[in-house]
Amino acid sequence: MSSSLRARATINAATARIERRAAAAAVVVAVLLTSTKLVAWRVTGSSAVFSDALEGLVNVVSSIVMLWAIHQSHRPADRTHPYGHGRFELLSAALEGGMIAIASLVIIWRAVEVLATGAIELASLETGIVLLSATVLANGGVGVWLLALGRRHGSPALSADGKHLLSDAVTTGAAILALVLVRVTGWMWIDPVIALILGVAIGLIGVRVVRRSLGDLVDEQDPRDSHQIESMLDGHCGDAGAEPRICSWHKLRVRHVGREHWVEFHLCVPSDMDVRRAHDAASAIEHEIESALGPGDATAHIEPCDDRDCARCGERTSQSAPKAPASATNAGAAPDAAATRRLRAPRDGNPE
Question: Measured between alpha carbons, how far is 37 from 43 in angstroms, rounded to an integer?
Fold first, then answer.
């Protein structure tokens, strides 16, 4: 194994350990906070607190699924999964978004039921406010931490769980607001109204999480990645391009498999370039793209340039074309085409 592959394997192993610990910590925190919210709901009887507690239950389940998905996603590629196991994280994120959306429907249904029947009975509001206030700080802190880890390591599962925890903190804040307003004003209807608003907001969050995850699952192109790679390939085209220079490129395809990027493209090089130089040029550009995007793999397909208007190939052809002997040509006569092909100077001294 080369030194670069060993270094990459070491980094991946370290990343896996960090993410597994983060996912395990998220499960523990989710269980503790949800237990606190359920106590607050039983004490107060608030619909808004019920909304928050239900979202907490979803967070417990999704955190357990995330822990499993992260473990699976770090398994190396094998014969049955040549592109790795990164899609487990996408499945985890999609499942989490779906559960959030379902929870929002339950919250909305309960809030509408309470408003319709008028069965609003609240108690021990001060105790509920104290319990929920403690969970806001914990949820927000862990959510920011998971989101930062997810973005740093490109983990869809950690990012989705971090966003869920942050939205959970906002939900808890709204539930606290509902209890405070009821305590100050005595208007009981405020509680189910805020619960209804929370249900709609939580549902929108779930839909966005599902939309993003399904987009990656069906290989939706990322415009930012595509634009970045196009700029890099354009920078190698023509005589003014950076080394290694190519004639052109086409058929760029980019997709995500979890945190990994898989890039495929075709490179057109001068038709007289030998295989070794073409391979080295492709490898250099592949490495450049992989370094810019992060974990993943870039694969280039080499093609001979057949563009008659190509500046690089046209200039080389005109320079290598032989001059016609004076005895065999009249003024202005073109050299024999067969002679031109036979006598064309080979590139870099390599015979054709």
Answer: 10
